[in-house]
Write the structure tokens for this entry.
Amino acid sequence: MILSRDADEIIKLFEALGFERQHKVDNIDGKDISSVSMTDANGFRVNVARVESMDRDMTTMRMNVRDFDEA
């Protein structure tokens, strides 16, 4: 996941690399945060979130697991 104030430019970059938008969520937790999930033809995924309060861009890792302790 990439967090940035300038998420639109990052999304455009990934679209140029062959990623397509799959899902978008606005106003996350009632805050001015939007997130876009993107996937490429090989199934690779990246999420890009626009966070106005960020001082600089940040890259984080996100994992979906059913049992966090087991994972």
Remarks:
- Helices lie at 7-16.
- The CA atoms of residues 4 and 57 lie 5 Å apart.
- The chain has one helix and five strands.
- The radius of gyration is 13 Å.
